[in-house]
Design a protein that fits this description.
Blueprint: E1 13-18, H1 21-34, E2 38-43, H2 48-59, H3 72-76, H4 88-102, E3 110-114, H5 119-133, E4 137-141, H6 155-176, E5 180-185, H7 189-201, H8 204-208, H9 223-228, E6 231-236, H10 239-242, E7 248-256, E8 264-270, E9 275-277, H11 288-298
Parallel strand pairs: 1-5, 1-6, 2-3, 2-4, 4-5
Antiparallel strand pairs: 6-7, 7-8, 8-9
Helix pairs in contact: 2-4
């Protein structure tokens, strides 16, 4: 199938280790919807308005002549009083792009963006709406932001409670056996600093071979994710990659089941709309290399 990750066997859980994971996550969500997938997106890191505006900027890449927008950085810098960077027409175009996605006019799939802070609330929403919407992809950004019940005396107790929520979530996913589950995972501060130092000390050849980046041990709330996840990838984009005329990110496969590893790849980023893509792919889908690997694994 053309959509990256859409042909991964059902029940697959994908932890994300990333600084730039939000950019890649939304690029892939949009691509999946463009290929007809029906997505339930629980937005816990950014509010629902931010998510819709991000998806609209990506969508605008194919409708730029009809609904032009200023660069995303200009949009984010807007302050009606002190720094007015967008005009009424920009706001109207943004609303039109979001409506286009919601109504399935140019995007065949469905994206349902919600915010539910507990696992129970999220599952209840899914069960109430799935009979009508038939979700094929479920996203929680982040699963570790789901709130555990009760108070905890120490950070380790809180971490154990969050790991328990993640385990329950994966168990529920496997029991459903009808959708692809995706969630980012948080990087520990120490691991982030050490990875960046390794990159800064690496020579040109090491960098060219893309041998720097995160590992599974970099995950912060990660025990349940590392043990039960079927596919784990990391996203690494230090400042000197972000600051290139054509920004880049390094995507690395660390764990895989029911398929083959896609190894390590580099993606470009369109800074006007924060979209990650492979410049060699004529449709500019995020991570097309993975689609071939996954299809082979399915066979």
């Amino acid at each position: 199938r053309a959509c990256p990750l859409a042909s991964i066997p059902t029940r697959t859980f994908i932890p994300w280790a990333a600084r730039s994971r939000y950019l890649l996550l939304n690029s892939m969500i949009y691509n999946m919807a463009r290929d007809g997938e029906r997505i339930l997106y629980n937005a816990l890191e950014f509010d629902t308005v931010d998510v819709w505006e991000t998806l609209a900027f990506i969508h605008q890449r194919t409708l730029r002549d009809k609904y032009p927008l200023p660069p995303k950085t200009t949009w984010m810098e807007h302050d009606p009083t002190h720094n007015p960077t967008i005009v009424q027409r920009d706001k109207e175009n943004m609303a039109a792009l979001i409506t286009d996605i919601r109504a399935g006019i140019s995007v065949p799939g469905c994206i349902d963006v919600i915010r539910k802070w507990t696992l129970e609330e999220f599952v209840a929403y899914y069960e109430a709406n799935d009979p009508k919407r038939h979700y094929s992809v479920v996203v929680i950004d982040y699963a570790s932001h789901l709130k555990p019940e009760g108070n905890y005396r120490s950070e380790s107790d809180k971490q154990a409670a969050i790991d328990n929520i993640c385990s329950r979530l994966i168990g529920w996913t496997h029991k459903q056996n009808k959708f692809l589950f995706i969630t980012p995972a948080q990087i520990g501060k120490t691991a982030a600093k050490e990875t960046l130092k390794t990159w800064e000390k690496a020579d040109a050849d090491t960098r060219a071979l893309r041998q720097c980046g995160y590992s599974l041990d970099s995950l912060y709330y990660g025990n349940a994710l590392k043990q039960d996840g079927d596919l784990a990838i990391s996203v690494f984009s230090p400042d000197d990659l972000k600051d290139k005329p054509q920004p880049e990110m390094i995507v690395k496969c660390h764990k895989y089941r029911l398929t083959k590893s896609f190894g390590t790849i580099s993606l470009n980023v369109d800074p006007t709309c924060d979209y990650a893509y492979d410049p060699l792919d004529i449709r500019q889908y995020a991570m097309p290399e993975m689609a071939d690997v996954i299809d082979e694994g399915m066979a």
